[in-house]
Specification:
Two copies of one chain form a homodimer. Chain A is an alpha/beta fold. In chain A, 51% of the residues lie in helices and 12% in strands. Chain A has twelve helices and eight strands. Chain A has a five-stranded parallel beta sheet with strand order 3-2-1-4-5. A three-stranded mixed beta sheet of chain A has the order 6-7-8, covered by helices on one side. Chains A and B meet through α7, α8, α9, α10 and α11 of A and α7, α8, α9, α10 and α11 of B.
């Protein structure tokens, strides 16, 4: 099976590394292109890619599977290219997949162009970016969501499933809207909360908080953990928010309702009731514990 | 110097362990009492305490320094006890300190009772609780806020500073209101956001979210990091919110304003602008980077 990557950073690089360290790794011929070319060049030198492609058409030509591995909005543009100028390089049975964070917009775009698309989303990441940060273990025992488009056959799905499994992923088949609503809650809302926490406490360059320098001195592990997501790839974060805006906005509204309820408790006349606060925090912890 | 702990969990245990592993550790005679007695008993068996005290008065008697090491509200009750029934056990020059998360309420209470109080707050913690989770390195190179009450002399402050330094802490002297506002931002708001995230996405036992079981399956490291604080000591969290309610409510209001601004961008007619989102996330990351 020949695989061509369009885009090749942390996630694409980790997929390629995982395939290279999988059993029977030589069954995969892997080529890759990225806008800067840096990642594919290094990966070819490392033996992770069989070849760095200098043009998208070279990565696509002869591929059994094309994996779009950029931010979700870059994947949308690549789908347009595959439905247009890159279409000639695409074989009749080439399957197109991706590893982007949102799925509904991509499925809609691929279906409209009648592309053989089977979307994918391996549920793993880190705050570092680029091929250099990639790891063959990133997807080990992690869910890998598979979202077939309207044109894809079961054989097309199998091609993507085989890659997901070779990377150690647990395949979860979902419809794109359910996927986007779910990740809006467990992945995209956390990103917005991390960013909002920084803006609220540190302020912005335009409107800095005068008490930030002192507060910063006292920041400990809690602050570090709660802001880690805000250190990640900003282009990926912007593409997530741009392609999952409605589901994400719904989640932000949900958390606002909850925060209003906390405010009511904190500002209760006579002061908050410590026992209610403790019970509430216990309830939260119990829900988390039952989930692990 | 003889030190008596009232309360003895993660933080108190870590202070005692740090003193035991410090140079000249035998200069400290350390005794401890806690409501359950479990932590002090184990610490005495470990050689971390010289003796487990069976009653608060025994831990206080003859102490040069009494360290209150429970949730902030428990410390308030212990201050009342020291100003009342435990007063007879207190020496004329015994200094009282603590390691609780908020300071203004404690200083007010101690000053009202004319106690020789020098509040402390070592800025470190973890989501595990109890003496068993304690570590001698917890405070190494971390800020240790010192907040003298009205009655304390410079010699009293020095006594607390010497303990903080022996634990590896960097002493930061602050007034209690500035401390409470600062930690409301970098420590207490993060806790509330972690809890609110769980309540918004997982729902509560009373009102569970039907889409939570599916979302939970897709949760990755971002979710884990953003909810870690909600796994911590609930009694400590409740005491924090109860004793720093106004500063914390102000921080919650700040983050609501920021979230409203994110909502406006996400719900912008025609969809969010990807470049603005990217610029905004870059601004957030830059502010974090300049802080490290």
């Amino acid at each position: 099976m020949r695989i061509g990557f369009l885009g090749f950073g942390l996630i694409g690089g980790s997929v390629a590394r995982a395939l290279r360290s999988a059993e029977l790794s030589r069954q995969w011929e892997i080529v890759g292109w990225s806008p800067s070319g840096d990642g594919p060049r290094r990966a070819a030198a490392d033996g992770v890619l069989d070849r760095a492609s200098s043009r998208p058409a070279d990565a696509v030509a002869g591929a059994d599977l094309v994996i779009l591995a950029g931010p979700a909005t870059a994947c949308l543009r690549l789908l347009d290219d595959l439905a247009g100028p890159l279409g000639d390089a695409l074989g009749a049975d080439t399957v197109i997949s991706d590893v982007a964070s949102t799925k509904a917009a991509l499925v809609r775009r691929a279906d409209a162009a009648r592309l053989r698309y089977v979307g994918g989303h391996p549920m793993a990441g880190r705050e570092t970016t680029g091929y250099e940060a990639s790891s063959p273990d990133l997807f080990h025992d992690r869910p890998w969501v598979v979202v077939p488009g309207a044109v894809a056959t079961e054989e097309d799905v199998d091609r993507v499933v085989s890659v997901a499994r070779a990377c150690g992923g647990r395949v979860v088949r979902m419809d794109p809207e359910a996927h986007d609503r779910a990740v809006a809650g467990v992945s995209h809302l956390p990103l917005i909360l991390a960013a909002a926490l920084v803006e609220a406490v540190a302020g912005t360059d335009a409107v800095p908080r005068p008490d930030w320098p002192l507060a910063r001195e006292l920041a400990a592990t809690g602050w570090r953990d709660m802001t880690r997501l805000a250190r990640g790839d900003t282009a990926m974060g912007a593409a997530i928010a741009a392609t999952n805006a409605m589901a994400l906005a719904g989640r932000v509204r949900d958390v606002r309702v909850v925060l209003d309820d906390w405010l009511a408790e904190l500002e209760r006349s006579g002061g908050p009731d410590e026992d209610s606060l403790d019970a509430r925090l216990r309830g939260v912890r119990d829900r988390l514990d039952r989930s692990s």
